Amino acid sequence: MAITIKSAREIELMTEAGRILEIVHHEMAKALRPGMSTHDIDRLGEEVIRSYDCIPSFLNYNGYPASICVSVNQEVVHGIPDRHRILQEGDIVSLDAGVIYKGYHSDAARTYGIGEISKEAQQLIDVTRESFFEGIKYAREGNHLFDISSAIGRYAGERGYGVVKDLCGHGIGTALHEAPEIPNYEMNRKGPKLKAGMTLAIEPMINIGSWEVKWLDDDWTVVTRDSSLSAHYENTVLITEDEPKLLTLTQDM
Ligand code: MF3
Ligand code: CO
Q1: Which atom of ligand 1 has the smallest separation from the CA of 176?
Q2: What is the largest CA-CA distance in the chain?
Q3: What residue owns the CA closest to ligand 1's atom 11?
Q4: CA-CA distances (angstroms) from residue 145 to 27, 71, 206?
């Protein structure tokens, strides 16, 4: 599949999808507290998504049973919300959400600490976010896709973290997952040339320990093999002729 270039009108719709998703994340972040279940987060997230006349894109995607992926501690991504899974002080929780606005998708993820967390956990969260920003320094027309991948992987790898290889970022638009696939590790090839109008969901998943992961028996939840903590950070990004535009991060929230 070719990488789609969005028209000005499509960029407008994706910008709105991104703006709404930013609000959804903001509302979920404000509500996080010890004693809350991962199901409570999903209920709130879906309610906010629908209040903006959007559709939660993850719900029923390949059979995924919820609107928000909620992944706690050693869970990397795709944790399934559960009314019996209660957040505790010291946990870290990754929230991944996607919305569809007038047929156009946005996708973003954040990891938060619940109450006071360890210094190691906070550093993991910080390095994961920083690796994203290191990657998007290269996200501009004329560069190659894997310049982004390599920058992310190098940044986290040099700091001693495990960079997950089994899951990647992706193009996004009228579908949640479009071409190209975006690895988070150093690549020997350059990958496709970036062009203005491409929209990409860039999403490093970083572990304190080894990069290796496995799938739980629910066929969704991805966990670290060594049970070390994992963090996730994702934004939907528009490639332009100069600085990339972060469609899911416009305010400082
Ligand atoms: N943000 C994730 C992704 O880009 C989550 C989608 S998986 C789902 O792949 F099944 F939960 F939708
Ligand atoms: Co994604």
Answers
A1: 4
A2: 49
A3: 58
A4: 32, 28, 19
Name the superfamily (CATH) of residues 8-246.
Creatinase/methionine aminopeptidase superfamily (3.90.230.10)
Give me the pLDDT at residue 60, please.
98
Rounded to the nearest angstrom, the gap between the alpha carbon of residue 58 and the centroid of all alpha carbons in its chain is 12
Alpha carbon separation from 1 to 121, 130, 178, 179, 198 (Å, rounded): 38, 30, 8, 6, 14
CA of 6 to the centre of ligand 1 (A): 21
Does pLDDT of 251 surpass 90? Answer: no
pLDDT tens digits along 43-86: 999 999 999 999 999 999 999 999 999 999 999 999 999 999 99
Cβ of 107 less than 6 Å from ligand 1: yes
* Whether pLDDT at 191 is above 90: yes
Q: Is the CB of 75 under 6 A from ligand 1?
A: no
**Does 97 contact ligand 1 (Cβ within 6 A)?**
no
Q: How far is the CA of 78 from the centre of ligand 1 (A)?
A: 7
Atom of ligand 1 nearest to the CA of 109: 1
Q: Please, are residues 200 and 182 in contact by the beta-carbon 8 Å criterion? A: yes
How is residue 30 written in tokens?
Answer: 């404000």
Q: Average pLDDT of 88-110?
A: 99
Atom of ligand 1 nearest to the CA of 66: 11
One DSSP character per residue, 156-219 reads HHHTTPEEP-S--EEE-SSSSSEEEEE-SS--SS--SBP-TT-EEEE--EEESS-S-EEE-TTS
Confirm if 250 and 18 have CB atoms less than 8 A apart.
Answer: yes
Residue 61, ligand 1, Cβ within 6 A:
yes
